[in-house]
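Saturday, quiet lab. Running sequence design on the structure tokens for the scaffold JK sent over.
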């Protein structure tokens, strides 16, 4: 085993050892932990753009992702049921207001980046929390789909991959690997559904497997979107939080896309 692979395995295990207890615990500890991850992921994005996380815009962007991620109405009972969205809107107004005090150097188009970054991260992590509030099995189901997609795509792509999927975005990904990831996700999901029928939320097995195909595609698309962002800014990883694995965004890019689409189809 190479030193790079050893580092990936060791630090990947450490990251899981930290994440899994919070996932199993659920509730407020899990929600605050995910909120912290959302802020770190947003900081990674705005640093790519050349903004400092400790700048006014950087801090507001991280605050925006935090309030969008957390179910604030559960903590502040005076808030409406969509309290986190209202709070996020207020933060966005504050970000837009930063253009007023810096007209020459900070335009509307520039402030759009921290707003988009906070929304991109916050909406994905918010749905992760919603899934955990509905049940641990919903989060595990999404994790298994993403992991199976990644592993299947790598194994098939590295062996028989010939046709490039999106060479300008991610040169190593192939069409064969993408299809292999979908098949792998289908196999793992079928086993999961047979063991835990409740995760299907009333859908038939055939319908669920069709949805899994969609979820697997979204997982791969989420990975490609982050790859495109990194390529745009000329960076290899979003951050260095997890040695050998990159940043928080590198680890959650697929899940950020999967959880909202799962919620859209009423799985939680």
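Result came back. Writing it out in full:
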């Amino acid at each position: 085993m190479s030193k790079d692979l050893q580092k990936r395995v060791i630090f990947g295990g450490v990251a899981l050892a930290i994440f899994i207890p919070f996932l199993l615990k659920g509730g407020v500890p899990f929600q605050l932990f995910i909120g912290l991850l959302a802020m770190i992921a947003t900081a990674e994005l705005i640093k790519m753009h050349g903004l400092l996380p400790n700048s006014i815009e950087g801090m507001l962007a991280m605050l925006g992702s935090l309030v969008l991620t957390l179910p604030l109405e559960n903590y502040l009972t005076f808030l409406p049921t969509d309290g986190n969205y209202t709070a996020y809107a207020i933060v966005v107004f504050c970000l837009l207001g930063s253009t007023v005090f810096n007209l020459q150097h900070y335009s509307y188009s520039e402030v759009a980046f921290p707003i988009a970054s906070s929304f991109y991260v916050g909406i994905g992590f918010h749905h992760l929390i919603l899934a955990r509030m509905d049940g641990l099995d919903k989060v595990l189901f999404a994790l298994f789909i993403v992991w199976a997609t990644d592993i299947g795509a790598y194994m098939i792509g590295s062996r028989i991959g010939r046709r490039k999927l999106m060479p300008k975005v991610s040169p190593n990904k192939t069409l064969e690997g993408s299809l292999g990831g979908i098949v792998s996700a289908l196999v793992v999901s079928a086993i999961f559904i047979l063991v835990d029928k409740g995760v299907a939320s009333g859908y038939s097995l055939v319908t669920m497997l069709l949805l899994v195909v969609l979820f697997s595609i979204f997982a791969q698309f989420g990975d490609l979107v982050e790859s495109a962002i990194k390529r745009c800014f000329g960076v290899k990883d979003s951050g260095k939080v997890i040695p050998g694995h990159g940043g928080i965004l590198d680890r959650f890019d697929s899940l950020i896309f999967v959880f909202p689409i799962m919620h859209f189809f009423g799985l939680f």
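Notes for JK: Residues 118 and 228 are 17 Å apart (CA to CA). The beta strands are 164-166, 170-174. Ask whether to fix the surface positions before the next round.
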